[in-house]
Specification:
50% helix; Serine Threonine Protein Phosphatase 5, Tetratricopeptide repeat; 34 helices; disordered N terminus; elongated; mainly alpha; single chain
Length: 607
């Protein structure tokens, strides 16, 4: 399935003309600044249609082909004003009829967009071709069709315009006319030989275009011509898919009446019903599909049913419609997740309530044997946790890795979730298969308030996991992915990543300080013999290193071990500095090296 962002799957947008009086709906922001800014020089004279003044200026030596900051000439302006007289005066004084603005649009493009038929009649005889394209590959015919100017379309066709010319996205004039709902233009183009089955680069036909924008009259006209109703684009989507996604219920009804396949899967196995279930405005479309025999339990290639799609997007009313029409409430996708798991993951409380009321199993295991409560807690949805807890089940049941819902809440960082679980009897010292408690998870993710809550309620602050690591070890190494993330991302984001890194380190230091103040022992060594100082050093935490160094009382490791850590940290600091500051040349400044050595010296003082 294509990504769910955006209003239309058919990505046609109204053309942005430098000078326009378009009749279609278009955001004021989409027009060029040339429309609103004050005209200058002889351009302003053309707009006011003062022919005597214009002629006088030209005779006095005004430049007939002068361009403004959008490269618009007086002829562009005159055409936009539909002033035939001004156009004739300018051409008489050798105005360039082939002049292009910054969008490569000629005066003919502007005439086509603004229904300046008389101006076009003056200009066209002076052109070598009416099929010149602008920066987007659009000809004057594209612009005339988009704006529904049937007289202009007739003129251009009579003057030899290529009816099947396509722009840079392979869209024909027929695509644009169909999308904007200009039925007369559509009929005219087809009568003159336009390919009614033409496709753009993504496989969209004029029927897709009309369906996506709810142009019911154009859809009817195309269907009456016998176009293939279930024609697919490159994603496998038919016009019915597109109409459902965009909530065009009248088009959906028309397509169904003409025999469109309501169960047609696209390349990913999604049917129109999946699209209607997910769409913002697809409620009526979903009802139409269900009432006309759509399979409510059909699954996509990844196992998602239409009910899963309502769960992803929180469409609780549509979920009720599906359930009432036989939708399987506990159906599982390829990961084993039910719609309840999905709703819990995305935090849709109302949909969770609908599913539970309809009999969904709150104790059913999904991916990695997680409960829906695991996913709600992991994604910090406290209201969903509250609703799931009210249904009642064994709260300390672990997943495949031994993690309870409290582990998930600690990793997710929502204190309210932790408090809800604790008040329901969750064991805060329960260990996963690696011996880690919820406090380990909170420390590893720098969730200060979660750490505070767990410690305050009695969590063992010096509990070790199977590798001998305490929560303090994890807090010291909690920024372990900092350099990896920066090295793996574009250098253009280096400054932003560095700021995020600094913030993360401050959070880690705050967690460390709290743990140390509550008797966490920084001298405890893991099974490799490393204590918290080593972890802070190895992961380049200067602030954390200062904190734990001040609290470390046992310094029994050999000098060789410390030298190894010094080297490890120095190399990390130097490499990090070189990548961030000089991504192309890898040249180090004196300050880079100085900071790395300074950090290593802080560790040396501990010995």
């Amino acid at each position: 399935m294509q990504r769910w962002g955006g209003r239309h799957l058919f990505p046609l947008q109204p053309a942005r003309f430098p000078i326009s009086q378009q009749s279609h709906k278009e955001s004021p922001k989409s027009t060029s600044a040339a429309v609103t800014r004050k005209p200058v020089g002889q351009c302003s004279l053309c707009r006011t249609q003062g022919m005597d003044i214009t002629s006088a200026c030209l005779l006095a030596g005004a430049r007939v082909n002068a361009k403004d900051n959008m490269w618009l000439t007086p002829l562009h302006r005159a055409v936009a004003s539909r002033s035939e007289e001004a156009v004739q005066v300018l051409i008489k004084h050798s105005a360039d009829v082939n002049a292009r603005d910054k969008n490569w649009q000629t005066p003919l493009h502007v005439a086509a967009a603004n229904k300046a038929v008389k101006c076009a009649e003056v200009i066209i005889p002076m052109l070598s071709s009416v099929n010149v394209s602008d920066r987007g590959g659009r000809t004057a015919l594209h612009h005339a069709a988009l704006n529904g100017h049937i007289e202009m379309v007739n003129l251009l066709l009579a003057k030899g315009a290529n009816i099947n010319a396509f722009d840079k996205k392979d869209r024909r004039a027929l695509h644009w006319a169909a999308y904007m709902g200009h039925l007369e233009v559509v009929a005219l183009l087809i009568n003159h030989g336009a390919e009614v089955t033409c496709k753009d680069k993504k496989g969209y036909t004029p029927l897709h275009a009309a369906a996506s924008n709810g142009q019911i009259n154009v859809v009817k006209h195309l269907l009456n011509l016998g176009v293939e109703i279930d024609e697919m684009n490159i994603y496998g989507n038919t016009a019915l898919h597109i109409a459902c996604y965009n909530g065009q219920d009248s088009v959906v009804n028309e397509l169904i009446d003409y025999g469109a396949n309501v169960n047609q899967p696209n390349n990913n196995g999604f049917t129109p019903l999946h699209f209607a279930a997910a769409s913002t405005h697809g409620a009526l479309c979903l009802e139409l599909l269900v009432n006309n025999g759509a399979d409510v339990n059909i699954q996509s290639k990844d196992g998602k049913s239409p009910l899963h799609m309502t769960a992803v997007h929180g469409r609780f009313t549509r979920s009720q419609t599906l359930i009432q029409n036989g939708g399987e409430i506990d159906c599982v996708d390829k990961d084993g997740n039910t719609p309840l798991h999905v709703a819990a993951r995305y935090g849709h409380e109302l949909l969770i309530n609908t599913l539970i009321t309809s009999g969904a199993d709150t104790a059913k295991c999904g991916i990695h044997n997680m409960f829906p409560l695991h996913l709600a807690a992991l994604n910090a949805h406290s209201d969903c946790c509250r609703k799931l807890l009210s249904s009642g089940f064994e709260i300390d049941t672990p997943d495949s890795f031994g993690r309870t819902c409290l582990h998930a809440a600690a990793a997710g960082g929502n204190v309210e979730c932790i408090k809800l679980l604790q008040s329901s009897g969750a064991d805060f010292n329960k260990k996963d298969k690696c011996g880690r408690t919820p406090l380990h998870y909170a420390a590893a993710n720098c969730h200060f308030h979660c750490i505070e809550t767990l410690v305050t309620t009695g969590a063992n602050i010096n509990e070790t996991d199977d590798w001998g690591r305490t929560p303090l070890h994890y807090a010291a190494a909690s920024d372990m992915d900092r350099k990896k993330n920066i090295l793996g991302n574009s250098h253009e984001n280096a400054e932003e990543l560095e700021r995020a890194s600094e913030m993360k380190e401050k959070e880690a230091a705050l967690c460390l300080e709290f743990l140390l103040q509550n008797d966490a022992n920084p001298s405890i060594q893991d099974k490799e013999g490393y204590n918290t100082v080593h972890y802070a050093a190895a992961y380049g935490h200067r602030q954390c290193l200062e904190l734990v160094s001040a609290h470390t009382v046992q310094r029994s490791l050999s000098a060789d071990i410390y030298i190894y850590i010094y080297t490890y940290m120095c190399v990390g600091e130097v490499l990090y500095a070189s990548i961030v500051n000089s991504p192309k040349s890898y040249n180090l400044s004196f300050l880079d090296i100085y900071n790395a050595v300074k950090t290593c010296n802080k560790l040396r003082k501990v010995q």
